[in-house]
Amino acid sequence: MASPPTGTRPDEVRRHNRAALLRRLHVDGPCTRAALATELGLNRSTIKTLVDGLAEADLVVERIPSQRHGAGRPSLLVVPRPKAAMVLAVDVGVEQLTVAAVGIGGAVLGRRRWGLVRGEVRPADVVQRVAWARRELAAELGGEPTAVGVSVPGTARRSDGRVHEAPNLHWADVPLGDLLTAALRLPVQVGNDADLGALAEHTRGAARDAADAVFVTADVGVGGGVISGGASLRGTAGSAGELGHMVVRPDGRQCYCGCRGCWETEVGEDAVREALGLPPDAGRPAILAELRDMADEPERAARRLAGVLDWLALGLANVVNVLAPELVLLGGLLAALPPRLIDQVGAVVRRRSMVARASGELRVVAATLGAEAALIGAAELAFEPVLAAL
Amino acid sequence: MASPPTGTRPDEVRRHNRAALLRRLHVDGPCTRAALATELGLNRSTIKTLVDGLAEADLVVERIPSQRHGAGRPSLLVVPRPKAAMVLAVDVGVEQLTVAAVGIGGAVLGRRRWGLVRGEVRPADVVQRVAWARRELAAELGGEPTAVGVSVPGTARRSDGRVHEAPNLHWADVPLGDLLTAALRLPVQVGNDADLGALAEHTRGAARDAADAVFVTADVGVGGGVISGGASLRGTAGSAGELGHMVVRPDGRQCYCGCRGCWETEVGEDAVREALGLPPDAGRPAILAELRDMADEPERAARRLAGVLDWLALGLANVVNVLAPELVLLGGLLAALPPRLIDQVGAVVRRRSMVARASGELRVVAATLGAEAALIGAAELAFEPVLAAL
Fold first, then answer.
1. Domain extent at residue A265
2. pLDDT tens digits, residue range B82-137?
3. How far is B140 from chain A (nearest CA, A)?
4. Are residues A180 and A300 in the same domain?
5. Which of A272, B89, B243, B312 is the most exposed place for a label (fewest CB within 10 A)?
């Protein structure tokens, strides 16, 4: 059915409104009662009852705003208490593991980080370190997290956090969600790093005001995350958005996934390194330094990166024709492209994509959260059910 | 923000529940009060109040079910009255125009149809015929439609029904929504034919039980419609799903859209005609006859259609990697492929697509509503706001 018809019981209304209010404070920060009433479309007495309830539960405090507008009694500012609900955010990268405690409002209250040897990351080690970090952070902050969000560079099943393929970790079919749940005795959700990057940029980054946005990030692999109609596009088993394995060049390079000419093989780290004429062992810092050096010579950069830019534009035009975003965010290595080249790619996509021509509304820009995106997204993934249940 | 926090006022609850109940009856047909209570998760007294209200407004009637289960007093069957709310569904095809009056429950209560000369369809003629059909059907049925849904073979802007490009009609930038609104003095919504086909298959066809489905249809062009998380994927300006202009073969045939090797040029009517060795002037009936003749010789068919099937599978694997549907429906010419070939294409896609391998859940099948899909979808487009406001 086009929209599943389910009824609403009156007792659900208060819970819904309480969650909406908390979510508003979590995403956009402190707010006066008056502004909350306007933004949520509720009357002031309803807001008062809700805020009183949240204050009683120690989730918010109220204070007189420092800046007063107009005459009369000032509307009290409702401020969430970061430590009132904490989650653990875990970013399993190819070369590092980060664990952070994140509070209501999105502040990182503490973190631990480890360097990893590429290709030698064992799930058991990850679990052990996360468990250790959780104990350390709980002691440091004087409070326990209530849920865990995990980012992995691979396909993860939403229902149970099973990692199906994470090629750059050399993981296949790893029950990461179950392992972490057993070790931490907390609800655990696992998501793809690019999906969570998209969620982060949508919640706290460059895509805040975009209802339809696509986040494309190139690191070792190329990943994508899609925001559609204001929410994460999930697809069956939560596995949508594997943009890196869209075939753009059927006679292109062989990809580990079995296809030839995946977007990942044509615009990922290897392709960029090769286009720049760097040796095969040149690491990420060397590539980034080379891109930075070319920022003032966009024409030379465009010549050297011509192939990569062509396949980037072709793939983006495909993505735009399928998903019709108003905004495309480039992350990872792609965010480091000289700004003039990003603009040029955007112009090509606007010209080539029938959908962009029809809507007249497409921007292609660099993402803003950088390497933190997946971690911030992991925290938001964990917070979604937490905020709804507080 | 990931999910826009808006509050709910208690008076919205009753309206929401009334709309949910009506929608349930519209989509799935007559139902006992007891089953409605279970399905909608509402108690029986709430259901009684809602049904009494609908009966008072003459939208439903109640009757004793003919088949009785168990002992005791039978639960009354709630039956929607088709003529209590009618919409006008319009399908502007490349070679014919269809106008139908559709009642609650989806029954076509009456229709008018005209043949059109390909490439010589003028917007003013369409508007005139729709206005004429509306008068005729209203007289015939003894009731007026309250809203209009229109399907066009092109990109249409959701907000005002402006048709941006409908290449096979030779239309560009036609304010069809405004023209029809002015002529009919009714709310008009315009959608892309493939998007509406997807909506129809999801509401009343093969994708009824699929929360994530993709409908790909090949006629003169190739179009796509996407159901994601149980609802139509719209994108900015409602223009998502232009799957036909995904480039699958960068060195392929020139497409009118400006790109080379669009999916449409590789698997559309022209490509199928050419693969079958039919002359350029062979029409749709000749192509369909040839496909039908080969149904019992799948190996010969596979050889003759090899190129088309390869590009079909490559494009579908891309679509599956991006959108992660559980179901792909092939419509139009593609639904006429020999069933064995559709199965083979499905097997290739399941093997090639990383997302299909991860989810383990992808079926590729022929659509079931045939040439009626766009018309049925246009009716559903019109019904959405009507049912919510009755």
1. 208-368
2. 999 999 999 999 889 999 999 999 999 999 999 999 889 999 999 999 999 999 99
3. 30
4. no
5. A272
Q: What integer pLDDT is reported at residue B67 of this predicted model?
A: 67
- Chain B residues touching residue A351 (CB < 8 angstroms): 258
* Per-residue model confidence (pLDDT) at position B4: 45
**Pairwise CA distance, residues A194 & B224, whole Å:** 25
Flag whether A359 is in a domain: yes
Q: Is any Cβ of chain A less than 8 angstroms from the Cβ of B388?
A: no
| Cβ separation A245–B353 shorter than 8 A | yes
Q: Is A45 on the interface with B (CB under 8 A)?
A: no
Inter-chain CB proximity B239 and A317 less than 8 Å = no
Closest CA to A121 of A149, A157, A92, A151: A92
d(CA A384, CA A388): 7
Alpha carbon distance A156, A169 (integer Å): 13
Separation of alpha carbons B236 and B245, rounded Å: 17
Burial grade of B358 (CB within 10 A; 0-12, 13-18, 19 or more): buried
pLDDT at B1: 38
Same domain, A218 and A180: no
CB-defined contacts A:B, below 8 A: 267
Residues B27 and B41 in one domain: yes
Cβ–Cβ contact B352 with A under 8 A: yes
Angstroms from B199 CA to nearest CA on chain A: 7
Asked if the Cβ–Cβ distance from A243 to B353 is below 8 Å, we say no
- A202 inside domain: no
For residues A231 and A348, membership in a common domain is answered with: yes
Whether B69 and B103 map to the same domain: the answer is no
Q: Using a CB–CB cutoff of 8 Å, tell me whether A21 touches chain B.
A: yes
User: Is A2 within the bounds of a domain?
Assistant: no
Which CATH number do you get for residue A192? 3.30.420.40
pLDDT at A4 over 50: no
Tens digits of residue pLDDT in A204-234: 999 999 999 999 999 888 999 999 999 999 9
Q: Are residues B126 and B171 in the same domain?
A: yes
Would the CB atoms of A322 and B243 count as touching at under 8 Å? yes
Which of B27, B318, B325 is the closest to A236 by Cβ?
A: B325
| pLDDT of B68 | 60
Residue B178 and residue B160 in contact, taking contact as beta carbons nearer than 8 Å: yes
Taking the CA of residue B47 and the nearest CA in chain A, the distance in Å comes to 10
Nearest Cα to Cα of residue A2 among B156, B213, B177, B151: B213
Q: Whats the size of chain B, residue-wise? A: 390
The last residue of one of the domains, among A30, A58, A80, is A80
Burial A245-281 (b: 16+ CB within 10 A, else e): bbbbbbebeebebebebbbbbbbbbebbbebbeeeee
Q: Are residues B162 and B243 in the same domain?
A: no
The complex's ipTM?
0.90
> Is B46's Cβ below 8 Å from some Cβ in A?
yes
Domain's final residue, options B80, B105, B129: B80
| B325 and B362 Cβ atoms separated by less than 8 Å | yes
B8 at A interface, C-beta within 8 A: yes
Mean pLDDT, chain A, integer = 92
User: Which chain A positions have a beta carbon within 8 Å of B319's beta carbon?
Assistant: 322
pLDDT band at B361 (very low <50, low <70, confident <90, very high): confident
- Count of the separate structural domains present in chain B: 3
Residues B226 and B359 reside in one and the same domain: yes
Residue B38 belongs to some domain of the structure: yes
Alpha helices (H) in A226-372, listed in sequence order: 263-267, 269-275, 284-293, 298-304, 306-323, 339-352, 354-359
Tell me the C-alpha distance between A343 and A341, whole Å. Answer: 5
